[in-house]
TrEMBL record:
It comes from Roseicyclus elongatus DSM 19469. GO terms for biological process: mitochondrial respiratory chain complex I assembly. It comes from the Bacteria. Residues 6-370 form the FAD dependent oxidoreductase domain. GO terms for molecular function: oxidoreductase activity. GO terms for cellular component: cytoplasm. The lineage of its organism: Bacteria, Pseudomonadati, Pseudomonadota, Alphaproteobacteria, Rhodobacterales. Keywords: Oxidoreductase. This is FAD dependent oxidoreductase domain-containing protein.
Length: 401
C-alpha cells in the first residue's frame, strides 16, 4: 500500500526546500510534505555550483520584484530560517552589478531596462564613459557607450547557506526528506496519483511539485508532459591576479562589483581572488551527468576579454574551476511556475536559466500560496505560468548572464 502525502516535492535543493519551508510555515496548511532528493550531498545541484549572485538588473518588472523580495529574505535570513537557533548568516556582499554596453543598440537596451528597474525603486544608475572611468579607474572604457551600476541591493552571498537554511526550517516544521529518486509518475484522469521511487517505494500524492532543476523535462515526461527545459553547462573559474584592482574603486568603499563585459564574460571579487565565467561559444544541451569543465574557455574566451578590459587582468592565473548546469528554458529564459493545465495537481517550478538561487524565496512562497490558498497572494507570478509554454507565447528576459 502506498504511503500518503499531501505534497511530494521532487528535488530538495534550494527551490524544493524553499517550497517545503514556506509550505510548512503557513498556518493554514496542515498536510504532510515529502521531499525526494536523489543526491543529499547536493554535490551536483545547481544551487551549490552557481556564482551565487542576486541582482535587480532585469528587463521585466516581475523579475525585478522577485529579486527585491529575495534580497529582503537574504538580509533577514537568520531570523527567517531560525529554528531552535538562528538561521545561517548568508554573508551578503553588496558589491553591486556593473553592466557595460559597447554599442548604441546595447545602450538603448540598458536605458529601457533601467526605466523598468527605476519604476520598481531599484537603486541602479546609468553612467557615461567619464563617470564609469572615475568610479573604476582600472577599466579600459574607450569602447563603452553606457554602463549600468547597482549601487545597492545587488551582490553575492552564501548559496548553500540559503539552501540549508530552508531545508533545516522545513524539516523542523515537519517536512520529511528522503534519499531516493523518482523514476515514474502514475496518472489517472488527468492527475498524478502515485510517485514511484527507485527504491521500489510507492507514494500517494495529493500534489506533486517539480523542483528537479535541470532534470525538469525528464520528470515532466513521467507524467506525459513536455517542458522546454534542458541542462546547459557553465564552467566557473577562480583566478589569482598578480596586480589586483581590488580597492581601486572610488565608490562603495573601494570594492569592485560583478562586472558584465559586453563579450558576456563576467567577473567579480571572491575574497583575495576573482571568480569568472562566460557563455560558451556553442551552447548545446548536455547530458544530466556531464559536469566536465570546459577548460579551454578560460584561455579562449575569458582571459582575452578581461585583459582587454583592464591592464590589471593581463597577468592572471586560474587556481580552481568547476562546471554546473543551468536549467535552461529554451523558450524565453524565464522561470516556469504554476499548475500544469493538462495535469492540475502537477506544479512546475523550473526553467530558471541561471536565476534559480536568487529567485528561490519568491518561488517558494508563490508555490506554497498556490497549494494552500489556490492562488498567488503576494507577488503574482501568473505571467510565468505553463500556459505561455503551451501557447508558444515567449516572455523573453533580455538580461541573462
Amino acid at each position: 500500500m502506498a504511503d500518503k502525502y499531501d505534497v511530494v516535492i521532487v528535488g530538495g535543493a534550494v527551490i524544493g526546500s524553499a517550497v517545503a519551508s514556506y509550505l510548512t510555515s503557513d498556518p493554514d496548511f496542515g498536510g504532510r510534505v515529502l521531499v525526494v532528493e536523489r543526491d543529499p550531498s547536493y554535490a551536483f545541484a545547481s544551487t551549490g555550483l552557481s556564482a551565487s549572485g542576486i541582482r535587480t538588473q532585469f528587463s521585466h518588472e516581475i523579475n525585478v520584484r522577485i529579486s527585491q523580495y529575495g534580497l529582503q529574505v537574504i538580509r533577514d535570513f537568520a531570523a527567517i530560517a531560525a529554528t531552535d537557533a538562528p538561521g545561517p548568516d548568508l554573508h551578503f556582499h553588496e558589491g553591486g552589478y556593473l553592466t557595460l554596453a559597447n554599442s548604441e543598440t546595447a545602450a538603448r537596451i540598458l536605458r529601457e531596462n533601467h526605466a523598468v528597474q527605476s519604476a520598481c525603486g531599484a537603486d541602479v544608475v546609468l553612467w557615461d564613459q567619464d563617470e564609469l572611468s572615475r568610479a573604476f579607474p582600472h577599466l579600459n572604457v574607450a569602447d563603452i557607450h553606457l554602463a549600468a551600476y547597482g549601487r545597492s541591493g545587488e551582490g553575492w552571498f552564501d548559496n548553500t547557506g540559503l539552501m540549508q537554511g530552508f531545508r533545516a526550517k522545513a524539516r523542523a516544521q515537519g517536512a520529511a526528506y528522503i534519499n531516493d529518486e523518482v523514476v515514474d509518475l502514475v496518472t489517472a484522469q488527468g492527475r498524478v496519483t502515485e510517485v514511484i521511487l527507485t527504491s521500489g517505494r510507492h507514494v500517494s500524492a495529493g500534489t506533486v511539485v517539480n523542483a528537479s532543476g535541470a532534470r525538469a523535462a525528464q520528470v515532466a515526461r513521467m507524467a506525459g508532459l513536455e517542458l522546454p527545459v534542458e541542462p546547459r553547462k557553465r564552467t566557473v573559474f577562480v583566478f589569482d591576479c598578480a596586480r589586483t584592482p581590488q580597492g581601486t574603486a572610488t565608490v562603495n568603499g573601494g570594492r569592485l562589483p560583478l562586472m558584465i563585459d559586453p563579450s558576456g564574460v563576467y567577473c567579480r571579487p571572491e575574497g583575495r581572488y576573482f571568480l569568472t565565467g562566460a557563455p560558451p561559444l556553442e551552447d548545446p544541451a548536455v547530458d544530466w551527468d556531464d559536469f566536465d569543465p570546459r577548460h579551454e574557455e578560460f584561455e579562449e574566451i575569458i582571459w582575452p576579454a578581461l585583459a582587454e578590459r583592464s591592464p590589471a587582468f593581463e597577468a592572471i592565473k586560474p587556481i580552481r574551476h568547476w562546471a554546473g548546469h543551468y536549467d535552461y528554458n529554451t523558450l524565453d529564459h524565464n522561470l516556469i511556475v504554476g499548475r500544469h493545465p493538462e495535469c492540475p495537481n502537477f506544479i512546475c517550478a523550473n526553467g530558471f536559466s541561471g536565476h534559480g538561487l536568487q529567485q528561490a524565496p519568491a518561488t517558494g512562497r508563490a508555490v506554497a500560496e498556490l497549494i494552500v490558498h489556490g492562488g498567488y497572494r503576494s507577488l503574482d507570478l501568473g505571467a510565468f505560468g505553463v500556459e505561455r509554454i503551451l501557447e508558444n507565447r515567449p516572455l523573453l528576459e533580455k538580461v541573462v548572464i
